[in-house]
Amino acid sequence: MENLESMLKEVSSRIFQAGGIDRAVVTKRRSRMCVGVRASHRYLLPNGVILNVSSTGSTYFMEPEAAVELNNMEVELSSSERKEEQVVLSLLTSEIALSKMKIKVLLDRILEMDFAFARASHAHWMDGVCPALSSKGYNNLAVDIEGIYHPLLLERSLRRLPDLVRSKSQTSPYSDLRKDPLELVHVFPAPIDIKIEYGKRVVVISGPNTGGKTATMKTLGLASVMLKAGMFLAAQNKPRLPWFDLILADIGDTQSVEQSLSTFSGHISRICKILEAASESSLILIDEIGSGTDPSEGVALATSILQYLKERVNLAVVTTHYSDLTRLKEKDDQYCNAAMDFCLDTLHPAFRILWGNIGESNALTIAKSIGFDERIVSQAQSWVNKFKLDKKQEQKGFLFQSLVEERDRLETQAKKAAFLYSNAVHLFHEIRDEAQYLEEQEEALKAKETQKTKTEVRAVKMEIEAVLKDFEKQLKTIRIDQVNSLIKKSESVIASIVKAHQPFEELASKRGREFYTPRLGEQVSVKSLGNKLATVIEEPGDDETVVVKYGKIRARVDRSNIRAIVANPAIGSVRSSRKQGQQGMKNNLKELRSLIAANYKDEDSYGPLLQTSRNTVDLRGMHVEEASHQLSMAIDTRGPKSILFVIHGMGTSVIKDLVLKLLRDHPRVAKLEQSPMNYGCTVAYLK
């Protein structure tokens, strides 16, 4: 490479000396080293190869004949070099891949530390304080912030953050930021206090333009976002705010010529999206609600929106010039008023919030102060007085009409209530008489049912005892090769007896399950544990589940999986009969009972439903692709006739839906059911 460059520099110098170029040029075109030469002097490079031409066509980039072989070697070496680089990179990649999880964890930790240092630097730079989540028992304030600055307005008054990281020996760039106010770039903005009591759902901020209504609302929104991000606030004492899951805002003019939206249409479009996304833990911020249309319709629409938000969100803060919205507090304590202070002497806003007050726009005063024609202002003031008087008369008329309508409505309701009361008394006497009659009928029916049950039990017992006695007699005289046929015949006879009384059995079983309540310390049979005997260690709860203990294992099972252990009189009869006769008869009777018990074969061949770390896969917090891969691997590693517990959680249900779809479509999954111990877990029975 050095020989090639040296030769080309020498050739380019000769061309320059011969007037073939303005200055010696050695460059690369099409991955080959070449020299520049005027088109009129290309004869200076006989047998040279033209690789490129300048945009003007006056300069050729040519490869001298003597450089062809060296260029070829350079191309070959470059290709070999790239191959070796790929080999080295592949080896490095393989080495890194072995520790990819450690590297990922390390990068995550570094990122967390970087975020923490960034937040700390920002807090130091703004001289911030750590906020806290509000508690109702603290001072009865849902939002309690004193002396907070709008963070973006405050940044203009602070020095710029340093661009470079300084060494430990250098002075901290934050050490003297707030020592001397005269050294600051700008004057500090005015701090504000935001105090909202618990139970207040809607805050209506009124006041003049440029008074700070919108800035106050933005400050609350930014403070809520910074709290969620773990950032400090530029405030005094200990700021306290609720936790808002969503912070939704409509601030500013949303007029759009491209989308054919007027100011009002854009405003309503944004509010519509906010109402769709809002939840009961959301913060809603709306600037100039209901503006941009007829004031009467705007007030009506704004009132309806605020009533909707009051019932469905944590807190809504709105700004307005409509005085009607400030009167909503008179009818509902969940509303709260706030006014922006305005100094009438200086005609300048004081940038201070007066909580519980109603602000005035002071439009005429401001217009007069900036030199507006006094005649127009005076005429406007007379119109304002007239409108106020007309509005008061109108309100009185509305109030009188509403009172008359309310009186008529209450009279109608009183008549309906008296009529309903009379009907209720009559119905009460009828129901009482009917209840007494039903109680008498129930007692008679119970006595009849009890007698019928005793009769049927006695009949079944006598029939089974007769079959067993007949079977014992035949066993004494029967040959060995006829034992199986005799057992089948006896089994058929007993089955027919059981079938004949099946309705009674089903009724008794159903009633037993309906009224049976396991007691503390009682032994029960648990189907989900393979019909094992377990001990009840907790009283049944309201969720129809019972905690049982099987050996050292504690499990919460559904009451439908629990059966009481009841002695059977027929079994006692069989046992007394087994003590008589020969040993062969005992064995055959035992075999007969096994055949009969086979009718009640347990459907669960998967063993006890017990969750361990080996048969559990936890997919919470994973992405869809990772969760799908982990679930497939878990199924592949499980043996036949095994159980797999899949924990997917109960969050957005994305992972749960994925798990259920994969398990239903998987050929090895026989059935699914929800885990009795965890509602965020699905149990898969594998083939």
Automatic annotation (TrEMBL):
Q: Which intervals of the chain form a coiled coil?
A: 428-481
Keywords recorded for this protein, A-Z? ATP-binding, Coiled coil, DNA-binding, Hydrolase, Nucleotide-binding, RNA-binding, rRNA-binding
Fetch the Pfam families from UniProt: MutS_V, Smr
One GO cellular component, as annotated: plastid
Q: What is its main location?
A: plastid
* InterPro entries given in the database record: DNA_mismatch_repair_MutS_C, MutS, MutS2, P-loop_NTPase, Smr_dom, Smr_dom_sf
- List GO molecular-function terms, semicolon-separated: ATP binding; ATP hydrolysis activity; ATP-dependent DNA damage sensor activity; endonuclease activity; mismatched DNA binding; rRNA binding
User: Smr domain: which residues?
Assistant: 617-687
Q: Taxonomically, which superkingdom?
A: Eukaryota
Question: Where does the UniProt annotation locate this protein?
Answer: Plastid
Q: Name one GO biological process term.
A: negative regulation of DNA recombination
Official protein name in the record? Smr domain-containing protein
The organism is: Cuscuta europaea (European dodder)
Lineage of the organism: Eukaryota, Viridiplantae, Streptophyta, Embryophyta, Tracheophyta
